[in-house]
């Protein structure tokens, strides 16, 4: 599961005020079904006081998967890759949620239930000022 997500996201950069790659998250000892804000913060390596916001996978990726008339051929290819990544997330992690941790410089975790019930997915960084 994780390998297929890493292959699909390889070379993609999540665009915000910084461009960040995706990395894997494999936490078999952290049950996804009972993952709370404190657990999300721990997985992200963030302080206990950092805010945690939840979003749907589709909401988080909405701009990345939307083709625009002004996109170059390369940008159109990137949109198709993001569409394929989102489809794979839905297929392999049907209960996936997106957790945004922090303010301004955020850690983003795209997590669902992995084999055995642990949290599994991808992570990236977002900067929003």
As a percent range, the share of strand residues is 25-35%
Query: So how many helices?
Result: 4
The low-pLDDT segments are none
Helicity, in percent?
25-40%
Give the averaged pLDDT, no decimals: 95
How would you name the oligomeric state of the polypeptide chains in this document? single chain
Gyration radius, rounded:
14 Å
First-last Cα distance = 34 Å
Largest sheet: 5 strands, antiparallel
**How does the helix and strand content classify structurally?**
alpha+beta
Q: How many β-strand runs?
A: 7
Strand line-up of the largest beta sheet? 3-7-6-5-4
Helix and strand sequence: HEEEHEHHEEE
The shape, in one word, is: globular
Secondary structure: elements and pairs:
Elements: H1 2-9, E1 13-15, E2 19-21, E3 23-31, H2 37-44, E4 52-55, H3 57-61, H4 73-92, E5 97-101, E6 105-113, E7 118-127
Antiparallel strand pairs: 1-2, 3-7, 4-5, 5-6, 6-7
Helix pairs in contact: 1-4
Summarize the structure.
The chain has 129 residues and is of the alpha+beta class. The protein has helices spanning 2-9, 37-44, 57-61, 73-92; strands spanning 13-15, 19-21, 23-31, 52-55, 97-101, 105-113, 118-127.
Describe the protein's architecture and organization.
- This protein has 129 residues and is of the alpha+beta class.
- The mean pLDDT is 95.
- The protein has helices spanning 2-9, 37-44, 57-61, 73-92; strands spanning 13-15, 19-21, 23-31, 52-55, 97-101, 105-113, 118-127.
- The radius of gyration is 14 Å and the shape is globular.
- The termini are far apart.
- Strands 3-7-6-5-4 form a five-stranded antiparallel β-sheet, sandwiched between helices. A two-stranded antiparallel ribbon has the order 1-2.
- Helix 1 runs antiparallel to helix 4 (73-92).
- It has four helices and seven strands.
């Amino acid at each position: 599961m994780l390998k297929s997500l890493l292959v699909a996201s390889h070379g993609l950069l999540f665009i915000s005020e910084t461009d960040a790659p995706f990395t894997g998250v494999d936490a078999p000892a952290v049950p996804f079904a009972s993952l709370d804000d404190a657990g999300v913060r721990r997985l992200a390596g963030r302080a206990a006081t950092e805010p945690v916001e939840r979003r749907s996978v589709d909401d988080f990726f909405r701009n990345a998967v939307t083709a625009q008339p002004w996109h170059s051929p390369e940008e159109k290819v990137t949109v198709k890759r993001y569409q394929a990544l989102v489809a794979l997330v839905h297929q392999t992690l049907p209960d996936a949620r997106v957790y945004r941790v922090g303010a301004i410089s955020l850690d983003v975790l795209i997590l669902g239930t992995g084999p055995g019930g642990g949290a599994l997915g991808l992570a990236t960084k977002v900067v929003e000022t």
